[in-house]
Specification:
The chain is of the alpha+beta class and 126 residues long. It is built from six helices and six strands, in the order H-E-H-E-E-H-E-E-E-H-H-H. The protein has helices at residues 2-7, 30-37, 65-75, 92-95, 101-114, 119-125; strands spanning 18-22, 43-48, 58-62, 79-80, 83-84, 86-89. The protein has a four-stranded antiparallel sheet with strand order 2-3-1-6, with helices on one face. It has a two-stranded antiparallel ribbon with strand order 4-5. It is elongated and about 60 Å long. The N and C termini lie far apart (59 Å).
């Protein structure tokens, strides 16, 4: 009965069935990842980072959001080959490319020129 009640509980908005895993050993295999993460539920996909910038990271996609939550609860800080895993929920907003303020200001100026809008004059009218 307790498991059923926990299953029907509302999950926080940051919970996702896609997990982002950091601090993995560089030589970890897909099979080892399935062994570690598969204990917490059915896995749809695991993507290991292979480039210089993404080595030591992975995405783990669970079939069920409750299985993903269980994995985060149990595997954050889990020791694998003397490395402590960092297991996070995937956040689409954090994964997008970061743009500097200067780049945004330059883009805004180009748009103002393109549409013949004076940003200073528009700000004074308000």
């Amino acid at each position: 009965m307790m498991a059923l009640r926990a299953r029907n509980a509302r999950l926080p908005p940051e919970v996702d069935r896609i997990l982002y895993v950091r601090n993995l050993p560089f030589n970890i295999s897909s099979e080892e990842m399935y062994d570690i993460f598969g204990k917490y539920g059915a896995i749809r996909q695991i993507r290991l980072g292979s480039s210089k910038d993404t080595r030591g990271t992975a995405y783990v996609v669970y079939e069920d959001i409750y299985d993903a939550k269980n994995a985060v609860d149990h595997l954050s800080g889990f020791n694998v080959a003397n490395r402590y895993l960092i297991v996070l929920y995937y956040s689409r907003t954090k994964q997008t490319k970061k743009v500097s303020t200067k780049d945004k200001e330059d883009e805004l100026r180009r748009m103002q020129e393109k549409h013949n809008v004076d940003g200073e004059q528009h700000a004074r009218q308000k």
